[in-house]
Write a structure and sequence with these properties.
- By secondary structure, the protein is α+β, with helices and mostly antiparallel strands.
- It folds into 2 domains: about 25 residues; about 120 residues, Beta Barrel (Lipocalin).
- The chain is about 25% helix and about 25% strand.
- It has 3 helices and 10 strands; from the N terminus they run αββββββββαββα.
- A hairpin with a 5-residue loop joins strand 6 and strand 7.
- Helix 2 packs across helix 3.
- The chain is globular.
- The N terminus is likely disordered.
Length: about 180
């Protein structure tokens, strides 16, 4: 039988000091890691790289995004349009196909560091892009008509508050679901 310490036995001051130092070190480490993880989210000098024109897309090539069962529209990204930019933005064309076969597309970017999405342009069934005037970053979890960007972020575009390392990594994750 292994002897157990008596919980009523008073601890010496050196043991208490050591325990406090250990907890303090743990707290400081956690705070430092949290600050480091936020990275560019707190960077006042951060600027988004120039956004290229909306790319051509092919609805037949889309890689599906899992949506809740009550959503009848099928969502997916065209893998040829997926990029992870040096400033940490995941840009893509999201293709939405309604049950009747109507195709709409959204050229968007997700900033994982801040949990935001920006829509740059929309295309209708003819594939013609219409630019969004003065696009703005908005929270991924805002009450939006569609949660496809949030679903994409959760299913592979983001790893916590950082973007996945590459388009190939994101596609691998999406295809494995």
């Amino acid at each position: 039988m292994i002897p157990r310490p008596d919980n009523n036995m008073p601890e010496s001051p050196s043991v208490k000091t050591f325990a406090r130092q250990k907890w303090l070190l743990l707290a400081v480490t956690c705070c430092a890691l949290a600050a480091q993880a936020q990275g560019p989210a707190d960077d006042p000098d951060w600027k988004e790289t120039e956004v290229p024109a909306p790319p051509k897309f092919d609805p037949r090539q889309r890689v599906s995004i899992e949506m809740p069962p009550y959503v009848s529209t099928k969502f997916g990204i065209d893998p040829a349009t997926l990029v992870v930019t040096p400033d940490g933005i995941v840009r893509y064309v999201m293709v939405a196909v309604s049950p009747s076969g109507t195709v709409n597309a959204f050229y968007e970017g997700i900033r994982c560091a801040t949990g935001e999405v920006k829509s740059y342009a929309r295309a209708n069934d003819s594939g013609v892009w219409t630019a969004i005037k003065a696009p703005e970053w908005r929270r991924l979890n805002d009450n939006q008509p569609s949660r496809h960007a949030l679903a994409l972020a959760q299913q592979g575009a983001c790893e916590g508050n950082t973007s996945s390392s590459s388009a190939a990594d994101i596609l691998r994750k999406l295809k494995s679901k």
